[in-house]
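Agenda item 2: zinc ion complex prediction
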Amino acid sequence: MPDSCLKCLSCAAEFPHGLYSHGCPKCGEALEVAYRGTQALENAGGAGIWRFAPRLPVPVEFQVSLGEGNTPLVLLPAVSKAAGLPSLYFKNETANPTWSFKDRFHAAGFSAARMLGYGKVVTSTTGNHGVSAAAYAAAAGVKCVVFCHQESSPLQRHMIGLYGALPVVLERQQAMLEVLVRDYGYFPATTMAPLPVANAYGVEGYKTIAYEIWQQLGRVPDHMVCPISAGDALYGPWKGFGELRQMGLTDRVPVMHGAQASGCCPYVKAFRAGDRTVAVEEHPHSIALSIRDETGGRPALQAIYDSGGSALDATEEEIVGALRLLASAGILVEPASATALACALKAGFPADETVVCLLTGSGAKWPETMESIYDRPILENPTLEELAPLL
Ligand SMILES: [Zn+2]
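Presented output:
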């Protein structure tokens, strides 16, 4: 296990590993894991994200894995052609054990919970986060309660229950979450602050996305487009690319772009105004429920500024169009993931630059959504005469 601690992104105060769910005890800003000394990137063994154990803050005896990570980085020729970007890659996180990038978050997060002595975990979810938490709770052998968003898919609630966790649909999740942590000894696999601060241990899981992209491309891309809500999906890979640079493995880092739905785009509004904080979206609405958080954390916004990037938004029609385009090329994603492509399609990237879109989660966990956007009749027992014109 590397020599590491938690360090405040704002005031740089350092703290021993522990639960700081309201952020830095001194200033309230986000904490992140900081490493002392130099470590190799990989070790010889370890499954999933744990092959990067020399750059992760949990000793081997606490590590939890379902074989997450090692996801494909793919070129889709039809999409490249439509986008006019020959080097448009997709980091396909739907290939994770519960079909979303959240598995990296919880592999790191549940391992940290065990390291810190917690046997019970609570979280809140619009879907992916809770399904993944339930699976990793099962793998870790810890109790898990998942507060589900009112609009979360019934399928996902059933999945959470089948994994052995307790799914609870709850309107005001924050207050109950605080009670479970304060009075019942639960570890929050989420953030509890009113304005999101990055989850330091979950971010460590997400940063391995950057490590893998660097290995798969043999270099870092010119641009990376990440769908964002709380913002960790962008901040995590950004931290990973930064560590690669610190380790001397690359002399440059990508330009980071956050992708949001036009109906809920607090980062885009903050970016356009040049703000340093992300305000609250008053009436969030979008088919992309996974990125419909009404606000987000400062670390991702700062990463966008520091990388010379941007925050982009896409309309509902553009998101559904991108989802259909990806499906027609062979990858079925949820609307939040399609938002990354929808934004990349109109970002104006130079054709000779390398772009990676992060596909965070599968469409297969959202049956109602898939049904709602499918627009062709399905033939049932047609005669040959009815079938022939389609052949
Ligand atoms: Zn601080």
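Discussion summary: The two ends are 60 Å apart (CA to CA).
Owner for follow-up: CH.
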